[in-house]
């Protein structure tokens, strides 16, 4: 396993639509292991492959709740159903030090392949639903910034222009 540098806001790979995974190869297993290690090292609870510069539809999640059973990887994930809406603060490992209130569906149904290629179907609500939606956005070249209202977005863009992005993030905040 290896830590991989996290790509930051402004890197074009974060704006590309990622390609589907075509086969569950050794390279994909290594990618997943590296993503998990990189996510934990950066104190994140979710990470999408484009965030380490790999434009493939792979995400890893460990939302760290009592009933989560460690890190999970999802290949080619899709949201096939959603209900409700919930406003909540989000941060992103690719936008360190920047937070905003994002409206997300409260509940989602996800279909994907697990790390060894078996079909997975699951339902998530609250925080976990938010993490899925944030990570799936990354696969389509979208950042949480794009989902903020214009006032928040402009304020954050001005802050980034003025101060740049910090090197590290506080452990207390939510990073996806
Ligand atoms: Ni993110």
Structure in words:
The chain is of the alpha+beta class and 176 residues long. It has a single domain, classed as Peptide deformylase (Peptide Deformylase), CATH 3.90.45. Helix content is 25%, strand content 28%. It contains three helices and seven strands, in the order αβββββββαα. It has helices spanning 26-41, 126-139, 150-163; strands at residues 46-48, 58-61, 72-83, 86-92, 95-104, 107-113, 119-125. The longest helix has 16 residues, at 26-41. It is globular and about 45 Å long. The model has no long low-confidence stretch (mean pLDDT 93). The structure holds nickel (II) ion. Nickel (II) ion binds at residues 92-94, 134, 138, 176.
Explain the layout of strands and helices.
Elements: H1 26-41, E1 46-48, E2 58-61, E3 72-83, E4 86-92, E5 95-104, E6 107-113, E7 119-125, H2 126-139, H3 150-163
Antiparallel strand pairs: 1-2, 2-3, 3-6, 4-5, 6-7
Nickel (II) ion binds at residues 92-94, 134, 138, 176.
Beta-strand portion reads: 25-35%
Number of helices: 3
User: How large, in whole angstroms, is the Cα Rg?
Assistant: 15 Å
**How many strands, what sense, and barrel or not for the largest sheet?**
5 strands, antiparallel
What does the overall shape look like?
Answer: globular
Report mean pLDDT, rounded to a whole number.
Answer: 93
What is the strand tally? 7
Structural class: alpha+beta
Instruction: Please name the fourth-level CATH homologous superfamily.
Output: Peptide deformylase
Q: Give the CATH topology.
A: Peptide Deformylase
Q: Major sheet: order of its strands?
A: 1-2-3-6-7
| Overall structural domain count | 1
């Amino acid at each position: 396993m290896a830590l991989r540098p996290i790509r930051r806001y402004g890197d074009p790979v974060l704006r590309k639509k990622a390609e589907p995974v075509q086969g569950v190869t050794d390279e994909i297993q290594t990618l997943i292991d590296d993503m998990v290690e990189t996510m934990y090292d950066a104190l994140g609870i979710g990470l999408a492959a484009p965030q380490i510069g790999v434009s493939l539809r792979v995400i890893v999640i460990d939302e760290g709740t009592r009933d989560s059973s460690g890190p999970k990887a999802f290949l080619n994930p899709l949201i096939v159903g959603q209900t409700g809406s919930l406003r909540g603060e989000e941060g992103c490992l690719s936008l360190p030090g920047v937070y905003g209130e994002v409206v997300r569906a409260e509940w989602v149904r996800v279909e994907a392949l697990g790390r060894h290629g078996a079909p997975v179907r699951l339902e998530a609500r609250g925080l976990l639903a938010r993490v899925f939606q944030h990570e799936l956005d990354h696969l389509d070249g979208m950042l949480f910034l794009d989902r903020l209202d214009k006032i928040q977005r402009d304020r954050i863009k001005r802050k980034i222009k003025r101060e740049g992005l910090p090197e590290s993030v506080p452990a207390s905040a939510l990073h996806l």
